[in-house]
Specification:
This protein has about 230 residues and is of the alpha/beta class. About 50% of the residues lie in helices and about 15% in strands. It has 10 helices and 8 strands. 2'-deoxycytidine-5'-monophosphate (DC) binds near residues 20, 43, 102 and 134.
C-alpha cells in the first residue's frame, strides 16, 4: 500500500471514510462546522476528474490520459461550491453518472497520485475533517481520530432514492441498489488505496443512527482523543 507522510503533523485531522451514500459527507461537514475545522470532500475531486475527462473526450479507463488531465485541473472549493478553472460545476458533478465515473477514474494509481498534494494542502490550522475512502489509510495515516462510517447497502440505496426524489430527479430503487453494489465492489476491490477500514478506526454503523447522533458520537470520540 502506498503510504504518504503529511506535513504539519501537529494540526489535527479527523478522517471519515466509508462507502457511497453512507451519510459521511453530511456528518463530516457538520463535525467540521462544530469544531471550526476545514472540510475536505475528497470524493468531489474524483468527480471533477471524471467530469473533466468526459469534457475532453478521455475514456475513464484510460489511466494515463485521465491522470494527465487531472494534473492540469485547477480545483477549488468556495462557499460550498466546487469550482473547476473558476467555473461552478457543483451540480454537474453530483449526478449518478459522475459518481460512477469518479469510482472508475479512482481505480487508477496515477490518477490518485495526481490528487495527493491537493488533498494535503487542506491540512491547515486549526484542523481538518477529511471525508473519502482512503483518508485514514493513505492520505492522513497519522490522523488522531479515524472513523469508518457505514450502513447496509439497502439503507444507503433508500437514502439515495429519497435524496433524488427530493431533488425531483428520476429515481429507481432497484437501479440505485445495483449501482451502489457495483461501486462498493469497485471501490473495495481495486489494488490502489481500496476502501477498507483503517486498523485503528472507530466503526460507526448508521442504519439505526440519526445524523445528530452520528455527529455527536464523532465529537465525543474527538473529545476523548484530545483529553487523553
Ligand atoms: O464520496 P463520493 O461518492 O463523492 O465518491 C465518488 C467516488 O470517488 C467513489 O465511488 C470512489 C472515489 N473516491 C475514492 O476513490 N477515494 C476517495 N478518497 C474519495 C472518493
Amino acid at each position: 500500500m502506498q503510504v504518504t507522510t503529511t506535513p504539519a503533523q501537529h494540526i489535527p485531522v479527523i478522517t471519515i471514510d466509508g462507502p457511497s451514500a453512507s451519510g459521511k459527507g453530511t456528518v463530516a461537514q457538520l463535525v467540521a462546522d462544530k469544531l471550526g475545522f476545514a472540510y475536505l470532500d475528497s470524493g468531489a475531486l474524483y468527480r471533477v476528474v471524471a467530469f473533466a475527462a468526459q469534457q475532453n473526450n478521455i475514456a475513464w479507463d484510460d489511466a494515463n490520459a485521465v491522470a494527465e488531465c487531472a494534473k492540469t485541473l485547477h480545483i477549488k472549493f468556495k462557499n460550498g461550491q466546487v469550482l473547476l478553472n473558476d467555473h461552478d460545476i457543483s451540480e454537474e458533478i453530483r449526478t449518478e453518472l459522475m459518481g460512477k465515473g469518479a469510482s472508475q477514474v479512482a481505480v487508477h494509481a496515477p490518477v490518485r497520485a495526481a490528487l495527493i498534494d491537493l488533498q494535503h494542502s487542506f491540512h491547515q490550522a486549526p484542523g481538518l475533517v477529511a471525508d473519502g475512502r482512503d483518508m485514514g489509510t493513505v492520505i492522513f495515516p497519522s490522523a488522531p481520530l479515524k472513523i469508518f462510517l457505514t450502513a447496509s447497502t439497502e439503507t444507503r440505496a433508500e437514502r439515495r432514492y429519497q435524496q433524488l426524489l427530493g431533488k425531483n430527479q428520476p429515481a429507481n430503487y432497484e437501479n440505485i441498489l445495483q449501482d451502489l453494489q457495483e461501486r462498493d465492489a469497485r471501490d473495495k476491490g481495486r489494488a490502489s488505496a481500496p476502501l477498507v477500514m483503517a486498523e485503528n478506526a472507530i466503526l460507526l454503523e448508521t442504519d439505526n443512527l440519526g445524523i445528530t447522533d452520528a455527529v455527536n458520537t464523532v465529537l465525543n470520540a474527538y473529545k476523548n482523543v484530545t483529553t487523553n
